[in-house]
Design goal:
- By secondary structure, this protein is of the alpha+beta class.
- Helix content is 37%, strand content 25%.
- It contains nine helices and eleven strands.
- The strands form three sheets. It has a four-stranded antiparallel β-sheet. A four-stranded antiparallel β-sheet has the order 8-9-11-10.
- Strand 8 (213-218) and strand 9 (221-227) form a beta hairpin.
- Helix 1 (18-27) packs across helix 2 (54-72), helix 4 crosses helix 5 (115-121) and helix 7 packs across helix 9.
Amino acid sequence: MPQAWSIEVELGVSDVSDDTVEELHEHLADCSPAVGTAPSGNLSVRIFIEAGTARQAVDAALKEVTAAAKQTGINYTVVGIEMVTEEELDRRLEEPSVPELVGVSEIAAMFGVGRQRAAQVVQREDFPPAVAQLKAGPVFLKWQVEAFEKRWDRRGGRPPKPIDLTELDREVLTALNATHREIEDSGPVTGKVTPEGEAQEIASTGEVLAGWAFAALRPGRLCAAFPASDRSARAAITRLAKARLVSVETESTRDDEVVLELELTTKGERVAATQ
């Protein structure tokens, strides 16, 4: 069954005039073209092709782009090509353009250790390299730090500081972790906030969590909802956030219900696993 493919063709030519780019656009008008400059400085042409297979899409794209280049009078050489489905392109465009960064203080919170201990850990030879050195200290890519933590042998250092949690805190943390794990393991989203703003309940069993609802919006982003009149629920979220087990991103109140979009931190996942 045919599907839409986004194909970027890089031509080994630079310093192309605006008139040439406009003419290239006209020749490729039926393919929704986007003409620009690649990071290398070469001319980049992205078009959309309907095809049943990846090979068919590449062949069709090369035929369209090279024919348009000849008609425009561009002396070209194809030096690169990248192809993704239209769905994958949309997913990539939704991702933040700047990766999430962390410093020593954030790493200390992630690992559940003091700042001094974190400063020692980042000096290890097997620790990911810093991407920049600021006056406040080095900064690292968060995903690389998370990968390091999974393989880090803590036995040589002090154990993480214990965290005092109430029964409600533990139940909420466990439910969030279960929701987080469910979407990571299965892939598809298991819950979401509907257009009307109501959380689709997927986990609220037990008396302790009566009135609560949990959902996964997408990998890494969760939703929790509870009655606006429930002060103990508010206090539990506040304690979890203060302990850096969760990070609350947005909050809204709809129909006497508080709806939170939040993330379970690496520290939160680790603590939840011990409950």
